Amino acid sequence: MRAMTLIPRSRIFWAVTFAALVLMLLFLPRSPLPWLDEIFFASTSLSLMRGGTAVPTVLAAFPQTHRVDLFYGPVAFFLGSCDLRLFGLSLLGWRLLGFAGAIVLTFAAAWVSRCLDRSPTATAASAMLVVLSQGMGARATSGRIDTVTVALELLALGCGIRALQTWHNLRSQRMYAVGAGFLCGLAALSTPRSFPFLFGFFIALAIEIVLAKRQTWIALGLVPGVSTLLPIAWWTIRQGTDPLSWLRFVLAASRGDTVSVSPMLQGSWHLFDGPLVPRLSGLLAILLMFVVFGAAILTSRQQNETDRLDFAASGLRLASITVMFNYLATLAVVARFWDYEVFVVPLLLPVLIPLSARVLRTGGRRTVHRLLVASWLALAILLVFIRAGKIAVWLASYQERDARPLLAFAEGKIPKNSRVFGPDEYYFYAVESAGSHYLFVRSIAPNGLVSKL
């Protein structure tokens, strides 16, 4: 009877997941309006597509601007140039890359959950809550490439978990270890905001090797480490430098940025700035993390040796340590932490959900189980209300977000191959689609990327 009730529940969760993805796809042409970060990434990819360097075309009036791939890495801009070649330059065409990343991220989260617990309901719930999470809703349609980076991180985590679980098959273990390392390298070359995940992943891997007390497991740590360094070394050497010097450059470029980094990098905190909604969902995620890990530890202590939760062989320990260190490291170095929730919560949920499922299946105090279920229900209800609110705003402003009048104006009034100077938002796609070149009237770039000379 219990097995029969699991099937409809998992199907409902998958139906909600696909519905949320379809709504994201419908959002792409009109929400949000074109904004600075999106234009910054799209124009850099446009420069690469045209055979230039990774310098945003909108900053062509400022020749002292450095290549931005020296800071972010080449992965996002390479994928962006491929996207533009495939779909052309348009608001919808560019945002399809972030949407594709969201799809991969969703199913990667389901895979990680499946690796940690075979429950179909837990797998479907992981996909559903990840796609409904506030960070996913904000980034999947915004024109940023954050979803691609997080998808790479989740795939790396899944490969790392499978490497632990396939210890009896040396060939499979090494293949998964190589995959985990290579994906970590690609994530590192997509944005420095992936560094906290890499830090957590290799800390967790080192702990697993120490606790295993087997010499053969040393190779398990060396293989992903070397595999991570290979793509980074290949790219940095091609740029005339090396991985360590590149990390020093990224650190120097980040230090002192009062908008993006915390006081640890000579920046400033902005934890209580900005909208209330991201803070609410973020604080609830923190509370949920404490509840789930606390319930798991309490349940594990109450069980005998045969029934105790196995955190090692299942990969739960590796995954738990990774996401906890990623959360703490991101909180420590990022100034506007809630704005970058996408780098934390989608990694956290597919670990907490299977862990919760294991706790609920074991014996223990009913109070703990009720608190666990109530916490998940509170998070799910909040995420549904947030997404419903976004849908309501989108519907209410649907006509006002129509870009066709602006596109028609640009095509009818601006001569071909003109240089059009304007503000940092809104007009990039319209002018470029009309066959002209859009340029910013002021130099805007991440700290350290514009030469002071």
What order do the strands of the largest sheet run in, or round the barrel if closed?
Answer: 1-2
Domain count: 1
**Structural class per helix/strand content?**
mainly alpha
Characterize the biggest β-sheet: 2 strands, parallel
Overall 3D form: globular
Describe the structure.
The chain is an all-alpha fold and 453 residues long. The N and C termini lie far apart (73 Å). The chain is built from 18 helices and two strands. Strands 1-2 form a two-stranded parallel ribbon. 67% of the residues lie in helices and 2% in strands. Mean pLDDT is 88; it is low at 1-6. Helix 2 packs across helix 4, helix 6 packs antiparallel against helix 15 (345-361) and helix 13 (276-302) runs antiparallel to helix 16 (366-396). It has one domain.
Summarize the structure.
The protein has helices at 2-27, 36-49, 69-72, 75-87, 91-116, 120-132, 134-139, 146-165, 170-188, 195-212, 216-238, 243-254, 276-302, 316-333, 345-361, 366-396, 404-413, 428-433, and strands spanning 419-422, 437-440.
Secondary structure: elements and pairs:
Elements: H1 2-27, H2 36-49, H3 69-72, H4 75-87, H5 91-116, H6 120-132, H7 134-139, H8 146-165, H9 170-188, H10 195-212, H11 216-238, H12 243-254, H13 276-302, H14 316-333, H15 345-361, H16 366-396, H17 404-413, E1 419-422, H18 428-433, E2 437-440
Parallel strand pairs: 1-2
